[in-house]
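Try this one yourself first.
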């Protein structure tokens, strides 16, 4: 096992906990889980986001992605439609309500991050950004 692995696990776990949905006002998240929010973000980036693409981007099976999209549809945050280029493909896009939800969730996340980042001096911010970038790159191997 690599040196400091235990510390990495603890720190990442603590960071995830600090930014978890439970920290925010429950009304902000429209009853969505973190997986729901990530899926909604992913489908908002593409015009024709297929179920296969959603599954790939989230690291889910296609049936797992389907369950997430089902939840988003029931809440009126996303909608399915046939692809304009290939009628066999089901595409998912956010509804107006879904885009508004993302705007609110992103706004809350940015405000929270700003409160934290303001407490860190500028040189350390750059070190943290570089370290986080390196860490994320290492996860994509």
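Now uncover the answer:
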């Amino acid at each position: 096992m690599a040196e400091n692995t235990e510390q990495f696990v603890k720190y990442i776990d603590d960071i995830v906990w600090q930014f978890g949905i439970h920290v925010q006002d429950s009304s902000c998240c429209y009853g969505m889980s973190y997986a729901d929010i990530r899926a909604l973000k992913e489908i908002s980036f593409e015009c024709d986001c297929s179920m296969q693409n959603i599954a790939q981007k989230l690291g889910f099976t296609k049936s797992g992605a389907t369950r997430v999209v089902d939840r988003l549809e029931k809440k009126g945050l996303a909608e399915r439609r046939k692809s304009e280029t290939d009628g066999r493909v089901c595409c998912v896009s956010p509804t107006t309500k879904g885009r508004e939800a993302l705007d609110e969730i992103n706004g809350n996340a940015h405000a929270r991050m700003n409160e934290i980042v303001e407490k860190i001096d500028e040189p350390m911010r750059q070190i943290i950004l570089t370290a986080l970038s390196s860490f994320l790159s290492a996860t994509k191997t």
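Discussion: The mean pLDDT is 87. The beta strands are 49-50, 78-82, 90-94.
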